[in-house]
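User: I'll paste a sequence; please echo it back and then give the predicted structure.

Assistant: Echoing your sequence first, then the prediction.
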Amino acid sequence: MSDRFPHFGSYRLTPAQELLLQASLLKEKAALTAWEQWQSSVDIEVLDAESNVLLPQLYQNLLAHGVEHPHMARLKGIYRRNWYANQLRLKHLKNLLSHLKDGGIEAIVLGQAALYPCQAENSRPIDNFHLLIRSDQLDGAIDQLSGLNWQTANPVNKTLIYLHNHQQYSLYLQSHLFWAIPQDHTDEQVWHYATTDFCDRAGWRLSPTDQFLDGCARTFFKSRSRQIYGIADAMISIINAGSDLDWMRLITQAQRYQMILPVRNMLILLQQVLHFSAPSWVLPAIFQMPIAEAEWLNYQVLAGDRRSLWRSTVAQSIRLLGHLETQLLHLRNHPFPGRQLLKNLLKPKKSALE
């Protein structure tokens, strides 16, 4: 966790959190050693909220290693409550996805429910549903969900829409996963690589590469408070992906989406905490990639730098205006109503000194 990584200290794990991650995800002696050190150094009754999220995963791993300990009874109870709650939520999610599909609307499952297929043993607590919908189907999806008594809880802003129902379930809808111009191409690439194997093909799953990228963004760009289980989720994504994780596409898309720092820092954390090693060429390649100013600014914004927040907003506006100017210049050479007006608007202005 070197100072070479900007604001890396903001995501520093406590020794107890590192041990919990190792006890939950490593195998054999490494897992058992971490477990012994962790359980003797914490009070399991007063864990932080992030650590509590990992307890079902911890129980599964300890059970697989034949661990016998007084804490196992408590961990078993936590695991079983989580398992039962997840079954109810996944059944509800499957019905929701089937209803949308019957209405001609496809959805990619994101977030907590996306780590495991519906039929798999899901140890990750599912507190909400999160779906990616095609931009041109978003309004239709909201209409379909209204028929199922889902209500929007915030104004529709086409970025992130929050809904809830009478069962107090939360649902988030969005139409873009990554932000890179041209946005239509970025969205299409996400759908192109997605697979239809979620909940008996009622919904879609991200490709392993995009799921890992999304997890990095959620951990390092969208919320500092979820790092411990963000790291666990990233490791589970890699384990589930096996040989399907496209490392070349991962680092090239990280550069295109301006996510070099999240991917780089995640790989370093996985290496340091969970002893995971990516292919030998990956980290050297990603360290050689230049980091865009907007990406540095995002890290500074997360650290609470208000000036960086303003600069980040201005930089994003300039990029969007530049894209708009490019589109207008392209239109200038094609016949359409108002073409002459557009040409006049884009004509270089003469200096006052001329």
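Residues 305-346 form one domain. The chain has two domains: 8-291, 305-346.
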